[in-house]
Amino acid sequence: MSTSPTDSRLAASKRSRRSVPGIRERNRQRILLAACEEFADKGFAAARTLDIAIRAQVSKSNVYYYFQTKENLYLHLLENVINAVLEASSLLRECDDPAWALPAYIRARLHIVRQWPQAYKMFASEMLHGAPHLPPDWPQRLRDDSTRSVECIAVWIERGLLAPIDPQHLLLAIAAATRTYVDFDWQIAMITGKLQPDTDEFEAIATTLTRLVLLGTAPESTHPSRLRPLPL
User: Fold this and answer.
1) Contacts within 8 Å (CB) and 24+ apart, 192-200
2) Treating both helix axes as pointing N-terminal to C-terminal, what angle do 49-56 and 5-46 enclose, rounded to 10 degrees?
3) Are 39 and 78 in contact (CB under 8 A)?
4) Per the CATH hierarchy, to which homologous superfamily does domain 8-68 belong?
């Protein structure tokens, strides 16, 4: 049975409409990836929309079509990381056992590093400079989350589930240890010989950090030690 020219045009039009969302999403993802690299390499002020477009292999007008401004694009990338950081912190709950919660938290932080290495580098740089480009409520959300996490660890210590350590410095140590793999990626490559940690490497990182944290925070009654802290 032959197909009329009208039917052919209708079928082609339907295929075209179906393909447009796919093309738009691919362009959007290419712009996000290119922007991550550009912002991570140069910072917000020095990064140019034109350079982002060149990296993404799209027109400059396309960048504006999807994100309107450079600021919107920057904040969109940072929002993904901030939401992931807050989600990781939600694993620290007073009702849970820290022997489970702390390893889960470490792995969640490492997952952010692995999934969004360039965006996480952007986030670290933004916070290092005092979060000048973030809406005022975003840093407040992070401060409130840190306060809640500190209070959770303090409760674990009061219940005798953790050694009497400083909760703030425990959180800072975990954040620093996980962030090292994006902040100092060139140093890591010199040590490991790998430009990017692979799956086995991330598993080794998670296992090592978990062991260090759990042994270092174990209650003295269950993990006695003859070591005494040295004066600074």
Assistant:
1) 196/117, 197/114
2) 130
3) no
4) Homeodomain-like (1.10.10.60)
Domain positions in the chain = 8-68, 75-220
φ/ψ region of 131 (left if φ > 0, alpha if ψ in -120 to 50, else beta) reads: left
User: How is domain 75-220 classified at the CATH fold level?
Assistant: Tetracycline Repressor; domain 2 (1.10.357)
Q: What is the pTM of this model?
A: 0.80
Residue-wise pLDDT tens for the chain (232 aa)? 455 555 555 555 555 444 567 888 899 999 999 999 999 999 999 999 999 999 999 999 999 999 999 999 999 999 999 999 999 999 999 999 999 999 999 999 999 988 888 899 899 889 888 999 999 999 999 999 999 999 999 999 999 999 999 999 999 999 999 988 877 777 777 887 776 777 888 899 999 999 999 999 999 766 544 445 545 5
